[in-house]
Write a structure and sequence with these properties.
There is one protein chain. The chain has a 6-stranded mixed β-sheet, sandwiched between helices. It has a 4-stranded antiparallel β-sheet with strand order 2-1-4-5, covered by helices on one side. It is α/β, with parallel strands linked by helices. α8 packs across α10. The longest helix is centred in the middle third of the chain and has 16 residues. It is globular. It binds adenosine-5'-diphosphate and magnesium ion (MG). Magnesium ion (MG) binds next to α1. The site of magnesium ion has 5 residues, from α1.
Length: 326
């Protein structure tokens, strides 16, 4: 559904994309995961015709973004990172203008507005002005607007950035629901847990290059099942284990300042990109020690095991859970 070949984008000061190649299948929910400045928005801007690539090519549902601009525009809906609704107008008016721009008849527009607002659970706010809505509601209106013309592909650029955890989960369910309708979803995010929760496949993006593409589960399985975050000499080192027995054998009665938790996508991201090492300075071994240990997959319950779901959680939790050494 989305085919990208060797896409490059050079700005005067920076090469934002250094040759991206990617295929996203019909109905797939694909997460494009990378830190700020890694080239996520640039990729979406090129795919949606908002900016031109320096070289390379891309197709949406078989239509070339260079040669078939108009056909391409009908293939996708776009939810940009910044809110770009008309704040003075009502939800209904914002959606209606979008329908007109897509050449929809009055009847089709009215039906679509009703349908998409039911979908994002904002039907009762149809005549509210956008300026009266909360951040999460505005984001849902943007998603509703992008779905108005029943696109085959939905591009979402950081759909939950800056939203609180409850609203974020609400948007996650909405995105899943849209995928279940058969829409292909291409989502950018710098929240690792968002990619882990939502995506069928995820690409790790770093400084304009794709480091790796696979399913979240594949990345996680590659690392192991259990992780042990150990603080030693002011440094955090993480060890990975296939089962709890090997983890316990590693600890072997030693008094370590450590936290047990399930392996998550962040571990794989760090191992692949070394990004956390660069950011936090000198956490050597967290990536270098990222080799999965032997042993069969063991029982998952257990002991003082601690599960960290997110990038933020895991750093928060990497403190003193099992007593300190010195
Ligand atoms: N219009 C622009 N002009 C010059 N440089 C840009 C422009 N847009 C983005 N960049 C640069 O390209 C790189 C990638 O940016 P972007 O795609 O916005 O990253 P992300 O969305 O992953 O945060 C950054 O170094 C950014 O500063
Ligand atoms: Mg961006």
């Amino acid at each position: 559904m989305i085919n990208i070949e060797n896409l490059q984008k050079k700005y005067p000061r920076v090469q934002a994309l250094k040759g991206i190649s990617l295929e996203v299948g019909k109905g797939e929910l694909f997460a494009y995961l990378g830190p700020n400045g890694s080239g996520k928005t640039t990729t979406i801007r090129i795919l949606t015709g908002l900016t031109k690539s320096t070289s390379g090519s891309a197709k949406l549902n078989g239509f070339s973004i260079e040669d078939n601009v108009l056909e391409c525009k009908n293939q996708f809906g776009l939810v940009t990172q910044a809110v770009n609704l008309d704040q003075e107008l009502s939800i209904r008016q914002n959606l209606d203008i979008h329908g007109r721009l897509h050449g929809m008849s009055r009847k089709d527009r009215d039906a679509a507005i009703k349908e998409v607002l039911d979908y994002v659970e904002l039907a009762d706010r149809i005549d509210s002005r956008v300026m009266e809505l909360s951040g999460g509601m505005k984001r849902r209106v943007m998603i509703a607007r992008a779905m108005m013309h029943s696109p085959r592909i939905l591009f979402l650029d950081e759909p939950t950035a800056g939203l609180d955890p409850v609203i974020r989960r609400k948007i996650w369910s909405l995105i899943k629901k849209i995928q279940q309708k058969g829409t292909t979803v291409f989502l950018t995010t710098h929240y690792i847990e968002e990619a882990e929760f939502l995506a069928d496949r995820v690409a790790f993006l770093q400084e304009g290059e794709i480091v790796s593409v696979n399913t979240p589960q594949h990345f996680i399985d590659e690392m192991g099942v259990w992780a042990l975050d150990i603080m030693a000499h002011g440094e955090l080192v993480t060890k990975y284990f296939r089962d709890m027995q090997s983890l316990d054998a590693f600890i072997n009665g030693r008094e370590l300042c450590c936290t047990k938790r399930r392996v998550n996508l962040e571990d794989a991201f760090i191992a692949r990109t070394g990004l956390k090492i660069a950011e936090n300075g000198g956490l050597n071994g967290s990536a270098a020690g990222a080799s999965p240990h032997g042993g069969a997959h063991g029982p998952h319950g257990g002991g003082g095991a601690h599960s960290a779901q997110s990038a933020h959680d895991s750093s928060k939790h990497s403190s003193n859970k099992h007593g300190s050494a010195h």
